[in-house]
Amino acid sequence: MPSPSSPATGRSLLTRRVLLVVIPLLLTGLLALWLWPAPPAPSVAPSRDAASGPLTLTAAQMAAQGIASQPVAAAETYPLPGLAAEASAPLDASARVVVPYAGVVTRLLVDEGAMVERGQALASIQSREALAAQAALISARSDAMAAASQARRDRELLAAGVVPAARDEQSRARAAAAQGVLQQAEGAMAHLRMAQDGMPGEYIVTAPMAGQVLRRDVDTGQAVDALASAFLIARPGPLDVRFTLPVQYRAVIANGQTLQLPEGASAVVQAIGADTDAATQSLRVRARLEQPGRVVAGQQFAVTLQVPAPQGSLRVAGSALLPSGGGHMVYRIDGGRIEPVPVQQVLGSEGDYAVIQAAGLQVGQSVVSRGTAMLKAMVPAAAPRGE
Fold this sequence. Notes:
Layout lengths: L6 H29 L11 E2 L6 E2 L2 H7 L2 E4 L1 E2 L2 E12 L5 E5 L4 E6 L6 E2 L4 E6 L1 H32 L5 H25 L3 E2 L7 E5 L4 E6 L6 E2 L4 E6 L4 E8 L11 E3 L5 E11 L5 E8 L10 E9 L5 E4 L4 E3 L2 E8 L2 E7 L1 E6 L2 E5 L8 E5 L1 H7 L9
Antiparallel strand pairs: 1-2, 2-23, 3-26, 4-20, 5-15, 5-19, 6-14, 7-9, 7-13, 8-12, 9-11, 10-11, 12-14, 15-18, 16-17, 16-19, 17-18, 20-25, 21-22, 22-23, 22-26, 24-25
Helix pairs in contact: 3-4
């Protein structure tokens, strides 16, 4: 029968059991501490001169935030964009062909886009008025010939002492009146060419100048009134660009200023209306487009007028301009030093640039043109002094 274990033996077994548990735990803890990742090094925060002062960034920080800048330039003009305009044939190089007598269009001899010579037939129209005018001319010629013949006979009789002087005077007066009626009838038919092989009263509408038919306003079988428009003819070449301008810009617009059209074309202001349109309170302006390119008469588009800028005006990147309260601001950058600058007035903007007036900005300085959203959250905006 085994003897009972001694107290010393029991303590030895307990010690061994504790060591078997504690040693693995210690080894596990040391291994975990060794494998645990070291805490990241604290990032360098942007430097601030004061709680509300400029922000200073290193080149690496600006690159990481995508901050870019563009220089400030002097502005001699500023844009007035979005003006509705229409191209038209020039006043001095176009003619509108009208119908001299009311009637019905029987034939069309040319169409839009055709090149015509002066005097070329454009259309034929049958007209009762033209037929009556033709008959009146024939009658006036006959009356004038009879009156002139009677006046000659009375003069011969007066010389022979057969008739009194009063009769001679009456004959000459009737002859003069008949000649006046004849001249009036001839004037009515002077520019009218009757159709040689047409129906009675059919006349030919002819081109008053050489050029291109821009518009045809009549069609075969159409009844037209006297003096109604039939064709518009213009010489190929420059076009006029007509647009309206709000009357408040009357003091800044002048002949010779540049008008920018889509696709890079430009025109020059040539005439400014002397009064305003009562309904729209706007001025009528006409510019000359010397090189129309793909612009055609009747085409409508938006134009931009460049007007003189006040002294001290600056040109900055359009993306640099930020809203601030009721006005605007930009971020001036010098090396890594960035601070907000209030804008007193935005004169105009178009595309990728804007023309402003800002007392805290000078030509040659730079403004932040990219990354402004991040800066607006980091740098308190200066209150604009009014726009």
